[in-house]
Amino acid sequence: MAYSDRRCVRSYEIAQLSIGGNLKPRVKVLHVEVGGTLGGSYIALERYIRHSDNSRYEHEVAFWSQPARVQNSSINWRTIDLGFQVLLPSQRKGAAKQSGMLERVRRIPWLHAIFSNMRTMAGIVLHFPRMLHMAKFFKSGSYKLIHINNNFNYQLDTLIAARLAGKPVVAHFRTPVPLNCLEKQLSRLAKCITPINALVDEYLRANGIKYQTTVCHDIVEPAQLPTAQDTKEFRAKLVEGCDWVVGTVSRLEPNKGIRDFLLAASLLHSRWPRLRFVIVGEGGEEAVLKQFTSSLELDGAINFVGYCDDAFLYYSSFDVFVCPSYTEGGPFTVMEAMQAGCAVVSTRVGQVPELIQNGVNGLVVEPGQPHALATAIEFMLENPTRRREMAVAGKSSIQRVLQPAQRASEFDNVLAKVLEC
């Protein structure tokens, strides 16, 4: 297998830190991402590396499949494309048929447990040659530590390959996805598992996953907000022909709850005919979601705008921002909307319970309940004074998490503890 080695901007020069007269080289850390698409996990990693103590660590990032958008001028660390094929669930052959079969299997717990473990074992056997190649690569790079930036059960190949290479592993855990017995056993191959919020921490402990670290939240950076004039001009175009705009910013994948957002829109459309819904983002479900929009007869009310490099013009122009997700790590979009001073309605996912006090600085509903989502959106629209108060409170409360250097230092120290062991 050939590896593609890309350096965005420049290579790091060899740096040394003088301690007590002795020169100590930086510790070389390899961060591994699945890739394929550009998601929140990689954005979190970028932010960490930018604020990490680079006198202590030299960072490199390896992707199973490197997204094209990673190659940009703001990156000054080495990136490696391992050249694996990464398919999203919606891109896999017979995905719809498999999804239906899995749904039926899930209804029988003991059968689902057997099926899940067998599938994990089959994946390990099938991908073992890949693991050997990865182990060889890990050894050749002089890495002192391997960091799995996705949930470790998304990267069992990396976890096993690191063990074969004799490299210690720190593994993030970002979303509370189901773990089977085999995955729980394999989690012991990691020296440390790091949850990114309290919900994930509780989930891991409830599932008997033992680790020796505390929660390390992802880094949120202060935003460069658009000017009032830019926002005014942009909103004028966005609301043309309507009175209110409710929007979401998300990858278009099954776990993001966009179908629930569309169902909520259909519940509101008859009562709020001059309300427009905007969806910013792209993904494997885009065609399916557009078809679903047509089936709900919402083509004139829903605007799919695609990928956007800077969503803050949208956040600043929305009357209400909605996060309808089923699972999230952050989500960054909620925190960005709060920074922009936009009123937020979100499902209870990720860090949201730590960020939003329901009814004070936003509204929180349970995932998978489009009627509750529609009710919360309608409350915001019917009560403009309360909406503005919650938006102001949200912008004020989010300031306490805007501490990039402190957050990066927390994870730097996790790496240091593992290396000391």
Tell me, briefly, the overall form.
globular
- The counted number of beta strands is 15
- The total of helices stands at 16
Oligomeric form of this entry?
single chain
Overall mean pLDDT score? 88
Give the strand order, joined by hyphens, for the main sheet: 1-6-5-4-7-8-9
In angstroms, what is the radius of gyration? Answer: 22 Å
User: Under CATH, the topology of the largest domain is which?
Assistant: Rossmann fold
Low-confidence stretches are 6-21, 92-97
Helical fraction equals: 40-55%
- The CATH superfamily of the largest domain is known as Glycogen Phosphorylase B
The appropriate CATH architecture of the largest domain is: 3-Layer(aba) Sandwich
The CATH C-level class name of the largest domain: Alpha Beta
State the secondary-structure class: alpha/beta
Beta-strand percent range:
15-25%
What is the rounded distance between the termini? 33 Å
What about the largest sheet?
7 strands, mixed
The total domain count is 2
How do you describe this structure in short?
The chain has 421 residues and is an alpha/beta fold. The chain has 16 helices and 15 strands.
Describe the model.
- The protein is an alpha/beta fold.
- The protein has two domains: 201 residues, Rossmann fold, CATH 3.40.50; 174 residues, Glycogen Phosphorylase B (Rossmann fold).
- 42% of the residues lie in helices and 18% in strands.
- The chain has a seven-stranded mixed beta sheet, with helices on both faces.
- Strand 4, helix 1 and strand 5 form a beta-alpha-beta unit.
- The longest helix is centred in the N-terminal third of the chain and has 18 residues.
- The radius of gyration is 22 Å and the shape is globular.
